[in-house]
Amino acid sequence: MKNSFGPAYKLVSLILAAILCLSFTACGSADMKQGDSPAKSREDAAADLSPQEPDPVEISLWTYPIGNWSNSTVIASLLADFNKQYPHIRVSVKYLDYNTGDSLVEEAIADGQSPDIIFEGPERLCTNWGARGLMVDLSDLWESKAASQIYDIVQDACRSEEGACYILPVCESTHCMAIHYDLFKAAGALKYLDEETHTWTTEGFIKAVEALKEYGVEQAGLVYCGGQAGDQGTRALVNNLYGGSFTDPAHSRYTISTPENIQALELLYNLEGIDFAPNLTGADEVKLFSSGDLAMTFCWNVAREINETLVNPELNFDIFPMAFPSPDGVPVLEGGIWGFGIFDNGDAARIKASKCFVEFMTETDSQYAKTVLATTYWPVRPMEDLYVNDKLMTEYGMFTQYMNDYHQITPGWTNARTAWWKMLQEIGSGEDIEAAATAFDKAANETAGNAKAE
Questions:
Q1: What's the pTM?
Q2: Distance of CA 78 to the CA centre of its chain
Q3: Which of 150, 366, 83 lies closest to 75 in space, CA to CA?
Q4: Tens digit of pLDDT for each residue in 408-426?
Q5: What are the residues whose beta carbons fall under 8 Å from the beta carbon of 353, sequence distance 6 or more?
Q6: Quick one: which of 138, 326, 367 has its CA closest to 240?
Q7: Which of 5, 155, 222, 353 has CB atoms 3.0–4.6 Å from 277's, for a disulfide?
């Protein structure tokens, strides 16, 4: 039967179809113009209803040095991929370091010039800037299928108590320690560790240090405490030795003055071959290890090995990564989580464009793989064969199974880090260990907002 409806019906249909198309257009599509005259020709109407070129948007990305996210060539390649799909969104990049990055961000916040996107971890994006009301809640981005696959422990570290999500995590890594394999072999100390699993017990650690000392190694390892750089190593060492923890399970209080942690600190202070170094940071300790002056380093991860292997001409021995020693040989390792956050600058178009960027870098497996590979770390959701042909990454990847507690999200974290290395300095100078640990808890918990310290 012939359609009995006239041109007016067809025009209405065309308008409805165009509206539906526009509602599903990707980020940045223009809205249909209002007030079009119904007397226009079909050609004019079709032209007016076609998707308009989106207005250009300029956004800024500031990134801390997470793997090759500090490499402008690598980032240029990722941005080129992004601009193929979103040519109207122009992204400027500022590369931060950990010495000056925080102060630069704070200055930008104070001046009302915060970056749109920032690439860092939950301890800054959630516990600091997010808790201060400066970040956009990205809960809507967590509703995607890809985000739903993020590992539970990572999700827990990235959500505030109120349920807000100020970060969409991208990658993770696990910190470890390493030994001078050749020196351990010469001293007969390899028998005290499990070479297959790269783990050892506290008893094995003690016996290995004793064997090294007997072999003639005066300093097997150093508890460096000249500043906060590398402090993840000394925290993990102390917490693992006798099964202690840095905070309570809820990440609401600091718990260094427990019997387990005090026992660990006493062991390190009294064990010959392990010395406290109040003038050295983690970077200083790594240099001594890489030059062969130490039998072990407590400040290590895969990035350290890559960097030292490439740039240190003094490195002439076999590095063997190890988990930190624990009573049963099953460690609880500190890890790093990094991802994207968006500052709330009050500009809806820039926030929308920033979300487009985050979605593009994380949603599809093919692009997400590129994003993660640029970090030189591991994905936060299942990705098969990402490093299947990379022996080094496969070796270090075994440590990710031991990442458990992400206490960096505990309130007062920045002040607690300062109190930690100062406490180690006091212990190294001969202060009473239990008193120093108790004083740490009191100071750290007061800055965390806990009126009563344990």
A1: 0.79
A2: 19
A3: 83
A4: 889 888 899 999 999 999 9
A5: 27, 28, 57, 59, 86, 89, 116
A6: 326
A7: 222
